[in-house]
């Protein structure tokens, strides 16, 4: 029996140590059947490219349905602004084009417009920011998103920066 355990253990360790994307639970992938490292791929999963960045320090994260996206400011921008004291949110239903202002962030140091990385319609605003603007300093690329937009043209995301390119030039260390 111990001989069987010794022969199965390396395979089981490789399978259990795989880090599958969140979407893997929703679909069956032929890669999931092979231990990590046995399949070489030169393309990235589309699920790894859901978050994009602008040169003006906004991020956009496309939902898995491809129809809506959340927009916020980057960690770099939040760090540069300092302590955020007020966030101006847009009206729901506002039609925006890429690079149009969709709000503003005011801090003890300065104020800055928030520009939409994509075209679409504002469907939701983060009401948490009305009462707790400093949430942007705590979680700028997480819970402190600014708006949710119904995406008009998902191809606009192609002109934005991926995480690696953006963070290479804008590290917050």
Automatic annotation (TrEMBL):
PANTHER family: GLYCINE CLEAVAGE SYSTEM H PROTEIN (PTHR11715), GLYCINE CLEAVAGE SYSTEM H PROTEIN-RELATED (PTHR11715:SF3). Binds 1 lipoyl cofactor covalently. Keywords: Lipoyl, Mitochondrion, Transit peptide. GO terms for biological process: glycine decarboxylation via glycine cleavage system; protein lipoylation. Its cofactor is (R)-lipoate. It comes from the Eukaryota. Residues 68-150 form the Lipoyl-binding domain. InterPro entries: 2-oxoA_DH_lipoyl-BS, Biotin_lipoyl, GCV_H, GCV_H/Fam206, GCV_H_sub, Single_hybrid_motif. The modification N6-lipoyllysine is found at residue 109. Its main location: mitochondrion. Pfam families: GCV_H (PF01597). CDD domains: GCS_H. The lineage of its organism: Eukaryota, Fungi, Dikarya, Ascomycota, Pezizomycotina. The H protein shuttles the methylamine group of glycine from the P protein to the T protein. It is found in: Mitochondrion. This is Glycine cleavage system H protein. GO terms for cellular component: glycine cleavage complex; mitochondrion. The glycine cleavage system is composed of four proteins: P, T, L and H. HAMAP family: GcvH. Belongs to the GcvH family.
């Amino acid at each position: 029996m111990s001989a069987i355990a010794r022969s199965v253990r390396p395979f089981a360790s490789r399978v259990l140590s795989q880090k599958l994307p969140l979407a893997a639970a929703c679909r069956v992938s032929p890669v999931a059947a092979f231990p990590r490292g046995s399949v070489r791929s030169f393309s990235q999963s589309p699920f790894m490219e859901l978050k994009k960045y602008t040169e003006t320090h906004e991020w956009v994260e496309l939902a898995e349905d491809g129809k809506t996206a959340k927009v916020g400011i980057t960690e770099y921008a939040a760090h540069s602004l300092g302590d955020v004291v007020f966030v101006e949110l847009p009206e729901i239903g506002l039609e925006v084009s890429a690079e149009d202002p969709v709000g503003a962030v005011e801090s003890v140091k300065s104020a800055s417009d928030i520009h939409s990385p994509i075209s679409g319609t504002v469907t939701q605003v983060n009401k948490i920011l009305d009462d707790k603007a400093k949430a942007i300093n705590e979680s700028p690329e997480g819970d402190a998103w600014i708006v949710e937009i119904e995406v008009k043209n998902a191809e606009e995301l192609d002109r934005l920066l991926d995480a690696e390119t953006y963070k290479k030039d804008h590290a917050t260390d």
